[in-house]
């Protein structure tokens, strides 16, 4: 009986091992292609200055900046001040306080002298009702604060859309800071192509950076290990898939931390889905579906030089909350828009973007956790070629580390950040730790994120904020 079981498991392990190795090779090949294309694009963009200067002097589109906030009293004033420092001719700022239980609204009232007004808001997309509206007097640009009944981030964004008066709106997080020229850069694809309906910006952790008047005046790698590893992870993510998918109009994610949208198309599509915790991805996929079903010519772009600085979680508890919410949002979006899969009507979005996120994002934690557990079990029954697997793992770590460092240094060099030698050494060390340890820890977090999914109510989620180092 034991011999039969042993033979069956041996055959099973052989197939699992082959599938796992092919999976990792497929991911590594995609990552190599994506990082190569991404790095090349960054350097090409750095050398292209003519259009940039022309746009800064002559062309722009009016933009409403929507900032949803829930219990953000620590960071919201710094965020709004950074928005007032933007070098852009025509925009407004709308902060939506989604029923905060702290003093988010009061710190804004005190800092900017806002006054309550009797302003009706026409609800073109559904959201919870407003409770009070405040406006500024004498600031650089109009500043509006709307306090509303709690409904979640997507609901707060819908309120911002309802209150906005310009044809394009930019959404950003209340714990983030825009670089002084980010708004000019994120609207550039809209000016270049009138069919653009959405543009995503690049997001970088600001832990360790000091920002003055929208400019990074000093940059150091974060002191803590966890946010340091996330810096490398963010750069690899934003440099890789997003630039590559942008080449064939296949982008399906625009980070909620910074994105630009054409309001009329978003309203026609129904606005943000208030039942989704991944409202940023869900809206982008919805726009793909809406435009293709209505035979609209459209483009969804990625502006890699439009930079938003955001806070990376500094504790494993907060990081788990964040990644768990991201994975649930990914699951909801993939299920809601499952008709895209293998559907010729959606072109490359179906056969490349959707399949990539299905296999290498949604299913990846289960494949990786199952693969690791299988290897451990095979080793216990002496079926594992340990030297080969150790060598394979070391090659994987080295290969992934090189690609991550390529993405990191390409980003640092092309936006003219200066790093100390200690930061360079830290980046190398943290890179190895990130691909060999943090990746598998987060794989477990994501693999278990759907446990109890139907029983729980998913809202904003509380992550501890730190004051942003901004002057």
Instruction: Please report the total strand number as a whole number.
Output: 12
Radius of gyration: 23 Å
Rounded average pLDDT: 86
In terms of quaternary structure, the protein is single chain
Percent helix, as a range, is: 40-55%
Uncertain spans, ≥5 residues at pLDDT below 50?
none
Name the helix and strand elements from N-terminus to C-terminus, one letter apiece.
HHEHEHEEEHEEHEEEHHEHHEHHHHH
What characterizes the major β-sheet?
10 strands, mixed
The structure class reads alpha/beta
- The backbone outline, from C-alpha atoms, is globular
Distance between the termini: 72 Å
Helix run count:
15
Q: Strand order across the biggest sheet?
A: 3-4-5-2-1-6-11-8-12-7
- How much of the sequence lies in strands comes to 15-25%
Helix-strand blueprint:
Blueprint (H helix, E strand, L loop, with lengths): L1 H46 L2 H9 L4 E7 L6 H9 L6 E8 L5 H9 L2 E3 L12 E6 L7 E6 L4 H11 L4 E5 L3 E3 L3 H11 L3 E10 L3 E4 L2 E5 L5 H15 L1 H6 L11 E5 H7 L9 H15 L5 E12 L5 H21 L10 H16 L1 H17 L5 H29 L6 H27 L24
Parallel strand pairs: 1-2, 1-6, 2-5, 8-12
Antiparallel strand pairs: 3-4, 4-5, 6-11, 7-12, 8-11, 9-10
